[in-house]
Amino acid sequence: MLEDVIQLDKKYYMNTFGDRLPVCFEKGEGMRLFDDKGRTYYDFLGGIAVNALGHGHRDFIAALKAQLDKVIHTSSLYYIENQAKLAERLVKASCAKRVFFCNSGAEANEGAIKLAKIYYYKKGIEKNEIVSLDKSFHGRTVATVAATGQEKYQKPYRGLTRGFIQVKPNDFGALEEAVNEKTAAVMIELIQGESGVYPMDKEYVRKVRQLCDEKDVMLIFDEVQTGMGRTGYLFASEMYGVEPDIFTCAKALGGGIPIGAVCACEKAADAFEPGDHGTTFGGNPFSTAAGLAVFDIYEREGLLENAKSMGEYFREKLDALKEKSDGKITEVRSAGLLIGVQLKEEIAKDVFNALFEKGFLTSLCGGNTIRLAPPLIITKSDIELFMKNLESILEDM
Ligand SMILES: *Cc1c(COP(=O)(O)O)cnc(C)c1O
Known about the structure:
2 domains; seven-stranded mixed beta sheet; single chain; globular; Aspartate Aminotransferase, domain 2
């Protein structure tokens, strides 16, 4: 079957992903995925920080099936019970005052950028620049690529949306210099995920908040990856003790069903008025049923606490392995279950491949860092199994 799928893909699918890892999954259960040959893989990437509940979670699937039997989509012309209730859940659990649902992380960031701009537009203040950070990742749409501080994503699309500038992360002086009277928003990831799990310093984030207050600039946190419990907190902003004006989330929000959210705290909450923004699919009865089920299951199973304690346990084990790795592990960076294991450059690709050979799904980012973002249902024994395999792989390198 795999060979057939590869042939079809190569012939009919746009070549955006090149040679993918040679596997095609047929079924999932908890931390595990099974391919067409019945081989088992352990999912330490969680579909890139999406499958927070793992695969095939029974209560989650039951909630989805129940909603399928009722109604899937009705459009934004009508009131939607699940949408209103999911908005309430997000507001009650964060600094948000109002929420807007869309379908992806990039789309949520687009909404956040529009919201920041329209707030000033309506006040008659001309502000249309957005300052973001080098090595950031905000999505693949034209505007979010302009916000993404990585040459490789921007280069072919030059003539991008104007008004975006990037500065060095964790360099407050650089940011202070870039912010001027035209700046509508500063947009940052509290932990840069895609470029290799690089956390911002607490002091830096605190100063950025202060600067935004002083200069009347919106502070946007892109919590597409760090949100929904990934760091052991529902949102990473809690870990930093700093509230944004707008934040976005997506990845884990629907447990695998596509949904994104633009969340506005006090200042920006009422800037969108009828006609200013919209969506066909965003927040439909089905995707918001998924979001509600995710919240219910987090609560029932204590998944935030689990993410925190398993994140600490994983970190201890990785730090210990680093100590005895002969410099093969050069740094471990993590917050909860968002973990970057930085390796000696020459061995990183081989370690990544060896993990895959042994059935451990991870991702290689920034060229030298293995990123782990496992489901929040992970247990100590899953972590021990991973560590045993990583240790033996490193011994052979
Ligand atoms: C994944 C990601 C995005 C993009 O989300 P999509 O759903 O792929 O559009 C944006 N920002 C961050 C921080 C991400 O990790």
